[in-house]
Amino acid sequence: MVMTLTSLKRTAKVSALLGAFVGTALGSAVPTAHAQSANGGWFVPKTAQPEAPRPAPRRVVEQPVQLPEEEQQAAPEAPRAPPVLPLPPVPTPPVLAKSTTPPPVVVGVINVQAVMQMSSAQQEIQQVLGARRDHLAQAVQHEEAAWREEAQKLQSQARSLTADQIQLRERHLQERRAKDQREFGNQARILQEAAQVAYHQIERELEQPNGIIASVAGSHGMNLVLHSEQVVLHVGEHDITDEVIAQLNKTLPHVFIPADGVDPEQVAKSGKMPTTADEERNAAPEPAQTPAAPAQPQSVLRQQH
């Protein structure tokens, strides 16, 4: 069978497209073998390359570098002394009156990682969102296999297709790849934001000013709670981890997780529940209100006229 030059060009073009898109689908770069070297751009085995005779090494006699007379006569500059700069006066702070003494420190410690691991709500999040993540990964792998099969089919049929047919099918493959990236990227974003919504409920329940950690610490008279990773030594009575776990599972056994495929951003726009924007707005300090300027008295000249 005689292959024409046009068929060769089509096959090479489709092979290049297949290599580029399969590399993108697999998420890794496909190494391209370049048969080029310094011998005119063609690969020549080392055994076939005659080794050129090496020139005899020449003895280089170092000559002393002659500096200009001006540089030889110039003496090295002395280090510059620190500059003397102005020292503007600063006001002396006023002496403050004695205020109330803070209460003695009663320290407690907590292992937040252990609390999260033993939380029934956190286990629910892992089970529900883990299943969605696995389903999305399987869908991506299935689509990659289908796309790769279509690209290989185009490569095998390239010799029997016209240039316009090849170009049309190439464009369809490119559009399919772009569509997959948009759809799967959007699904991954929805999954990530659903996890943020779910985990933030546990964080708020634990860490808000009237949350579980503050409640358990207050019941023991503790006014300072540290992470256990930051403490070198403590007694068992200082650790409130188990009590926090028990209260968390009792107060928040389940969390709200957006339904599968439901965009959390659309849920926020529906107005059915508060949003993170409301939380940030409430946490922001109120701007200091400047006192209103006293009313200016009416001019005496205007009163006379």
TrEMBL record:
Question: GO molecular-function annotation terms?
Answer: unfolded protein binding
Q: Does the keyword Protein biosynthesis apply?
A: no
Pfam families tied to this protein: OmpH
Q: Which residues form a coiled coil?
A: 137-171
Q: What does UniProt give as the signal peptide span?
A: 1-35
Q: Which family does it belong to?
A: Belongs to the Skp family.
Q: What is this protein called?
A: OmpH family outer membrane protein
